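G.,

No rush on this.
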Amino acid sequence: MIERPPRPRSSDATRAAILAAARTRFAADGYDRATIRAIAADARIDPAMVMRYFGSKEQLFAAAASVTEVDLRIPALAALPPDRIGAGVVAHFLARWEGDEALQVMLRSAATNETAAERARDAFAGQVAPAVAALHRDPAEARARAALVATQLIGLAMCRYVLRLPPVVEMDREELVARFGPLVQAVLT
């Protein structure tokens, strides 16, 4: 069978294909390991086209990250049973992480890219802190607890989804919630 050359694309379709390939590649490989060549191959275009549309890897990452909003969708913590808040947060976070490529892009890239690190800080400060504030009257205490919860959740995600630490990967979601929920509970309450 003779392979046909790819059909010409419109400018908008090419841009969308590059962004989709970049989001997937940054999520899988992180910022440092993702290459323009790999992204171009995924988008089925010449690497020069990626540079033509975005100028640099940093600009491509910024565009891919801005297209993908990081919404943690933190539930109203005060509405959860008081003794199950930690478990509820862990269960929610695991469900969000496993269902949202944007969180994977953010975590894998935040360690090596300042734009991604800033997005991670903004997402956690802007979303976890207000949710925790509903549990504490003292704003400084709420910020401190929110930061500690973020530390625990990011550490869990890093070990499960990036480093793929075998014991953590092997646990199902229910076991992780049962084991990790009390840690988050202790920080929150």
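When you get to it, here's the other one too:
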Amino acid sequence: MTIDNISQTNNLPILYSLRNCPYAMRARIAVFKSKQSIELRDIVLSNKPDEMILASPKGTVPVLVLDKNVATVIDESLDIMLWALKQSDPDDLLHNQQANADTNPLADMLSLIAIFDHQFKTKLEAYRCAKRYHEDNITECRYACEKHLQMIEERLNCHTFIMSDKESLVDIALLPFIRQFARVERQWYLQAPYPKIRQWLNRYLQSPMFSKVMFKNPLWLNSREVVVFG
């Protein structure tokens, strides 16, 4: 939704985002799932807004500016996801309803996400580069990624989503990266021994949620158009 009266958005957090960046994508998904509203500013990394650099000098997306007056900033995607869902979590993606003295679902989720953020992502980048530059080690790079995918396939053989039969933070955190993997060698992926992953991924890619999260807005620096997302 677009609003012409900028004054209506003065109190909204501002999210600087890059449409196809997986980190920005999962931040937007979490905001959407939280049913909160933010001002979305789509950018390209070759032309970063001065306002974004001032808020977060490291210059990567996503960047969430919570308060323009005191410059309260969150500039890590997982932290933005947690912020959004701790504000509002109508689908209980953090599994707070399942937590008790003996279990800590969030800790388990963060542990699994960390494996993908720190291990799988590095292997995925090597796999994507091998494909892009026609390197002869593409099979080895794919195999390194598959070790992580096999773990997800086993989980999805046991329940509908990665953690249980209930959607969680893990699903939306891993979604953009598994989507990237599926796009590297598309024909191989469609025949690969991961039917549950394909089913899980397709459910998201064909959802109205994904269409809204991936909607192509005008670049903010070009239009200065106020886009309210969520």
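DSSP finds ten helices and five strands in the chain. The mean pLDDT is 93.

Enjoy the weekend,
O.
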